[in-house]
């Protein structure tokens, strides 16, 4: 039996239910059917694929790279210093208690409609799971293993490279698989609240025109991109953490 078959069946059932509900409402500006969304996506493929998708992906890539560097850096710092952990951990948690939709307009006010206002929203959403998950990976390393390497003459640098990094790699890839969809959501939120291009901006523009299928078309494209990116990360994980598959 194909491992993906249950998921495919569930998706088919949900799409069928959506199609039936849309036909029952018969108001495309409120709830377009999946067929209408796909047709509209094809009709809008020009601006979506040539202008708005590249704009959104630029935000996603830059924001995700910054989040990886920031998140891993903070995790390493907190693991290396108990003082840093006590100082930073509460602030990292507190950063997630502020509604992103409240900060995004401020970012637009500070940086205008440039890419950096959207990047900041993306970083704010994505650095947290990377930081916390990677830090948990470092903390999962057993003290007995560290002490054993110490007795063999290993220093802290060697323990970090030979023990902690391999042990934390599964946590790192789990964090990235969480951060990829969140980065796309963050970019879309930033574009929705203030932008001149991007899939989030395009979806909001279609809403002002009461084009229900046009609102869903960029959302569908974002979902496909998120799933494809997560699949690529999963492939990299299998290649780099080969011992888990043995």
From TrEMBL:
<dbReference type="GO" id="GO:0005886">
    <property type="term" value="C:plasma membrane"/>
</dbReference>
<feature type="transmembrane region" description="Helical">
    <location>
        <begin position="215"/>
        <end position="236"/>
    </location>
</feature>
<dbReference type="Pfam" id="PF00528">
    <property type="entry name" value="BPD_transp_1"/>
</dbReference>
<keyword id="KW-0813">Transport</keyword>
<keyword id="KW-1003">Cell membrane</keyword>
<feature type="domain" description="ABC transmembrane type-1">
    <location>
        <begin position="53"/>
        <end position="237"/>
    </location>
</feature>
<comment type="similarity">
    <text>Belongs to the binding-protein-dependent transport system permease family.</text>
</comment>
<keyword id="KW-0472">Membrane</keyword>
<feature type="transmembrane region" description="Helical">
    <location>
        <begin position="171"/>
        <end position="195"/>
    </location>
</feature>
<feature type="transmembrane region" description="Helical">
    <location>
        <begin position="51"/>
        <end position="76"/>
    </location>
</feature>
<feature type="transmembrane region" description="Helical">
    <location>
        <begin position="119"/>
        <end position="138"/>
    </location>
</feature>
<dbReference type="InterPro" id="IPR000515">
    <property type="entry name" value="MetI-like"/>
</dbReference>
<dbReference type="GO" id="GO:0055085">
    <property type="term" value="P:transmembrane transport"/>
</dbReference>
<protein>
    <submittedName>
        <fullName>ABC transporter permease</fullName>
    </submittedName>
</protein>
<keyword id="KW-1133">Transmembrane helix</keyword>
<keyword id="KW-0812">Transmembrane</keyword>
<dbReference type="InterPro" id="IPR035906">
    <property type="entry name" value="MetI-like_sf"/>
</dbReference>
<feature type="transmembrane region" description="Helical">
    <location>
        <begin position="88"/>
        <end position="113"/>
    </location>
</feature>
């Amino acid at each position: 039996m194909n491992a993906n078959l249950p998921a495919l069946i569930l998706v088919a059932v949900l799409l069928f239910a959506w199609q039936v509900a849309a036909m029952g409402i018969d108001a495309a500006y409120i709830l377009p059917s999946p067929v209408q969304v796909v047709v509209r996506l094809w009709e809008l493929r020009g601006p979506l694929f040539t202008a708005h998708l590249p704009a959104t992906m630029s935000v996603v890539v830059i924001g995700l790279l910054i989040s990886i560097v920031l998140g891993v850096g903070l995790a390493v710092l907190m693991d290396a210093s108990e003082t840093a952990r006590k100082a930073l951990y509460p602030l990292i948690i507190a950063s997630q208690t502020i509604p992103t939709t409240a900060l995004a307009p401020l970012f637009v006010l500070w940086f205008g409609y440039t890419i950096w206002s959207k990047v900041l929203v993306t970083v704010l959403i994505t650095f947290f799971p990377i930081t916390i998950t990677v830090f948990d990976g470092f903390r999962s390393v057993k003290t007995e293993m560290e002490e054993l390497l110490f007795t063999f003459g290993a220093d802290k640098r060697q323990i970090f490279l030979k023990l902690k990094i391999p042990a934390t790699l599964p946590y790192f890839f789990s964090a990235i698989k969480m951060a990829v969809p969140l980065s796309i959501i963050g970019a879309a939120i930033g574009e929705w609240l203030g932008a001149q291009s991007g899939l989030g901006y395009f979806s909001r523009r279609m809403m002002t025109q009461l084009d229900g299928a046009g609102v869903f078309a960029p959302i569908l494209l974002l979902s496909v991109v998120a799933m494809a990116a997560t699949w690529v990360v999963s492939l990299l994980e299998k290649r780099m953490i080969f011992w888990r598959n043995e």
